[in-house]
Design brief:
The protein has about 200 residues and is mainly α. Helices cover about 70% and strands about 0% of the residues.
């Protein structure tokens, strides 16, 4: 892998694009009152009971994991993750200013939200970054112990959703689980060590 790397421009574009897709996925979940796992799910849940926005809560929940990434992985990875997570926080809080949705079925929101978030996270992962939160933990475990990032993330997400059983409607919880499964299937099937290599960087890019 050392002789293959993305250019700086490719990294910035991919991280920004991935963050936008994740924020768009979060927006769909919000429209139906759905949750998901990880710090995203915690921020969505708490935002229903406080005046703080999702973006603010999401960033605050992720701060300890950015520190973990700095000391356990690398400062470069931590800074890229901070950039990606910060972009998601800002974008998610401002998407509603650009368009409005009057109604969407929870089933559709679960599937499209899970797919968008999964693809967005996949783009970010492949450019040596994460969204903070449990992303940092699962990527660390995958790199050090060979544990599938998607499978471990799915286990964490399902645990968090199970703890939400008494806090949201059972029907919404069911579709939230579906969305989390869709998201993590995208990661489990597409993000595996050694499978992906970038083309050699173009010095002039």
């Amino acid at each position: 892998m050392s002789q293959y790397q993305h250019s700086f421009k490719e990294d910035i574009i991919a991280i920004a694009s991935g963050a936008f897709l994740v924020a768009q996925g979060v927006f769909f979940l919000q429209q139906a009152g759905l949750l998901t796992g990880g710090t995203t799910g915690l921020a969505l849940l708490v935002s229903q009971f406080t005046d703080l926005s999702f973006g603010t809560l999401y960033f605050l929940c992720n701060c300890p994991f950015y520190l973990m990434a700095w000391f356990r992985m690398s400062p470069r990875f931590a800074l890229r993750s901070l950039l990606a997570g910060g972009a998601v926080s800002v974008m998610a809080d401002h998407i509603a200013y650009f368009f409005e949705i009057t109604w969407l079925a929870p089933a559709y929101c679960a599937v499209i939200g899970g797919l968008l978030m999964g693809v967005g996270m996949l783009m970010i992962f492949r450019h040596n970054a994460s969204l903070g939160g449990f992303n940092v933990l699962v990527l660390y475990c995958q790199d050090k112990f060979g544990i599938s990032a998607g499978k471990l993330q799915m286990g964490i997400d399902c645990t968090i959703l199970a703890l939400s059983f008494f806090l949201i409607d059972l029907n919404l919880l069911m579709w939230s689980v579906v969305g989390a499964i869709v998201l993590n299937l995208v990661l489990a099937m597409n993000h595996k060590p050694g499978r992906y290599q970038a083309h050699p960087a173009n010095p002039g890019a």
